[in-house]
Amino acid sequence: MSAPGRSGYDGTRRIDPARDEAVRAPMIGLLGMLAAAATPHPLAFDFGTSGQGTPVARSRLYDKGGYGFEPGGTADAFLFSAAVPEGTYRVTVRFGDAKAAGTTTVKAEARRLMLLAVPTKPGKFVERSFLVNVRTDALPPPPPTAPGGDAVRIDAKDRDGFAWDEKLTLEFLGAPKVASIRIEPTKAPTIYLAGDSTVTDQYAEPAASWGQMLPAMLDDQIVVANHAKSGETLKSFLTSLRLDKILSTIQPGDWLFIQFGHNDQKSQWPQTFVDTAETYPAYLRAYIAEARRRGAHPVLVTSPERRNFDANGKIAGTMTEYAEAVRKLAAEQHVPLIDLNTDTKKIYEAIGPDLSPLLFMANGTDRTHNDNEGAWLLASAIAERIRANIPELAPHVVMPHFDPAHPPLPSAIYIPKSVAYSAAKPAGN
Fold first, then answer.
1. Among candidates 218, 219, 260, 206, which has minimal Cα distance to 375?
2. pLDDT tens-digit series, residues 146-161
3. Among candidates 172, 171, 183, 176, which has minimal Cα distance to 96?
4. Single pTM value for the model
5. CATH number at residue 209
6. Which of 17, 166, 378, 411 makes an SS bond possible with 210, Cβ 3.0 to 4.6 Å?
7. Which residues are in coiled coils (predicted)?
8. 3 state DSSP class of 429
9. Which of 111, 150, 115, 148 is nearest to 130 (CA)?
10. How many domains are there within the chain?
11. Residues 348-373 pLDDT 10s
12. Is 15 exposed, middle or buried (0-12, 13-18, 19+ CB in 10 A)?
């Protein structure tokens, strides 16, 4: 279009159908190509002779932007990745082998348990599907004059893991027999998790948290997006822009589960300490308000107790005041309550001081952070509370009834260990 003062331009757009069509047609084509490029397509991979996708040799390693196996796997424990845009994906796995039996456990991203011990007989194949949320650290950039950032402030451990990258990663464990995988973009109600090390997807054995066990207890119509992080507090979750990341993608009808307290109560951390009388409930109210403003449903979760027994075999509370503050606020704000603090006391006391160390990492020398068995029991308590207290989510809970006062013993729980291992304790311990 001409500039003012040239070719008789007077600020009024003159209609020229031939010219307009000449401009519009290639523009529509360009927009169509951009839309197609931005829309992820289904991916299918064949690990044998099923003919149900792109053949993948076991020697093919993942290359950025492509697909392949992650280094360090074995026949009984391996990881496969495929590059996908941020979003939610339905993963359908065809399990089985023409000649051998199998029992396959599937984890996704940073050890999120999706399926536990899927059995197959020789020559028999079964299909199971589940939903996986994939994210990067990118944020919609703020305007030039506005405060904020264009990325979550992740750390080196985040960058080295599988939770904040450009790909969807699946881990197959036990005696895995995988014939093919199909990955399809989809949309589904999402449960977002905001919290600390007792919630997060722990990157390596032996640490584990309830948030990474919860997906296996829900059906394939709802997805868990675990944004919790070891060492985080209500304040640092804000300053690291982790809440901003959740709020940038959360949709009306989604859920935001909020559990903080273990690190917030530390008065020796003066920049993030919050007291139960004023600042702790005030920050929780802000999280609740931000979720509601976007049409999402907030849920408050009381922090799990530490494993400290008194002389009578009862758990000595270290989170009592913070748990009570959450209960009070949930009633005040008419927010669903998941009282994990009460349930963990019941679980640990039922199993007792002699066996309960088997529910914690570092051979029980850590009294805060669970191992796989402990995380499974805490997630079972969460799922049971969802079934009892949140009618909209109750139909999605598929695990059997769980009574925290009568839990199974640690020896009755078996979850295959992941490839990644670290002797380091989670941050915030």
1. 206
2. 999 999 999 999 999 9
3. 176
4. 0.90
5. 3.40.50.1110
6. 378
7. none
8. coil
9. 115
10. 2
11. 999 999 999 999 999 899 999 999 99
12. exposed
